Amino acid sequence: MTDYQNAQRALENMQKIDPHRIKGLDILSTTYWQLKKEVELSDLAQKAVDFDKMAPEAWFVVGNCFSLQKEHETAITFFSRSIQLDPTYTYAYTLCGHEYTSNEDFEKAISCYRDAIRVDNRHYNAWYGLGAIYFRQEKFDLAEYHFQRALEINSQSSVLHCHLGMAQHQNGKT
Question: How far is it, in rounded angstroms, from Cα 95 to Cα 60?
Answer without folding.
Answer: 9
